[in-house]
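Action item from last meeting closed. Structure (301 res):
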């Protein structure tokens, strides 16, 4: 069962890695970054709601007292993460923002250790270090001419990593309350839609969506790269630790880089290739059963 869950997480991260392809198309059509976020979560919410109504309407049932879990996954995580990420890009650079966003496994590991008593072992720490170094190489941070290490930019960038990590945390609480992965994904998108539409200005730009390219890209970024991966990732969380899932999901930038190579001819025989190699090795490391189960104990004051 665990191996299947690993595959769910890896496949989810692979689909997330394709977001950039559709983002480029929508940006080229004149949509702002926040409008693309609103397009993504709104189309995902609509598509998943229609699917649930056809397959099993009972999946829409939740308890009012549990709404905080979905406010957490949808607004505190999904919307907050995107806002921080795009703000960090403006204040620093795309490379710096990407590296700061992928500090998320560190926060997942810390939060999960405190909240869910997950163990930290040497295997996780090595995988985490390799993953972070790999992300630095993938982002090509040391060769970026646009680096601007403003204090606010760094803080907001770290905020994107925290927001990205919080999906695993709030999602775990929803799972423990007995909700299906589809239900969790549904209300994540619904609350994210409620949180993003008022601040995106998308409603005024709706006429821009009435063309084949925009519709195709909306389905791609909202269904293929949002609905499917969130369901798969949440399903994977039910059988493996948050910290492992978070580290494994960092194959996303590696997948995005590979797509850039095949679709846009971007070179791989450089630091990005090294980064991809390190990330994939860290994922393989997490799939190996540790020879000993000794955990590193953390004391809380």
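Sequence:
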């Amino acid at each position: 069962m665990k191996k299947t869950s690993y595959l769910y997480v890896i496949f989810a991260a692979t689909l997330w890695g394709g977001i950039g392809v559709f983002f480029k198309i929508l940006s080229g059509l004149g949509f702002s970054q926040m409008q693309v976020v609103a397009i993504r979560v709104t189309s995902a919410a609509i598509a998943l709601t229609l699917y649930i109504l056809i397959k099993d309407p009972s999946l829409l049932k939740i308890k009012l007292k549990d709404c905080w879990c979905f406010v957490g996954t949808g607004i505190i995580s999904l919307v907050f993460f995107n806002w921080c990420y795009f703000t960090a890009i403006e204040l620093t650079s795309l490379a710096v923002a990407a590296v700061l966003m992928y500090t998320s496994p560190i926060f997942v590991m810390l939060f999960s250790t405190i909240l869910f008593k997950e163990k930290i072992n040497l295997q996780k720490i090595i995988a985490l270090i390799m993953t972070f170094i790999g992300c630095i190489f993938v982002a090509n941070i040391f060769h970026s001419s646009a680096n601007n290490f403003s204090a606010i930019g760094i803080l907001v960038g770290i905020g994107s990593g925290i927001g990205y990590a919080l999906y695993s945390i709030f999602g775990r609480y929803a799972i423990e309350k007995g909700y299906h992965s589809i239900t969790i994904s549904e209300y994540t998108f619904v609350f994210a839609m409620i949180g993003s539409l008022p601040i995106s200005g998308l409603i005024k730009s709706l006429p821009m969506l009435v063309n084949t390219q925009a519709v195709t890209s909306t389905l791609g970024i909202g269904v293929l790269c949002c609905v499917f991966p969130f369901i798969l990732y949440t399903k994977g969380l039910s059988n493996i630790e948050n910290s492992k899932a978070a580290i494994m999901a960092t194959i996303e930038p590696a997948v995005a880089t590979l797509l850039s190579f095949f679709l846009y001819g971007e070179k791989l025989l450089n630091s990005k290739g090294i980064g991809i190699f390190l990330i994939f090795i860290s994922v393989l490391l997490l799939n190996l059963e540790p020879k000993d189960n000794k955990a590193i104990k953390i004391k809380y004051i």
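Note appended to the action item: The radius of gyration is 19 Å.
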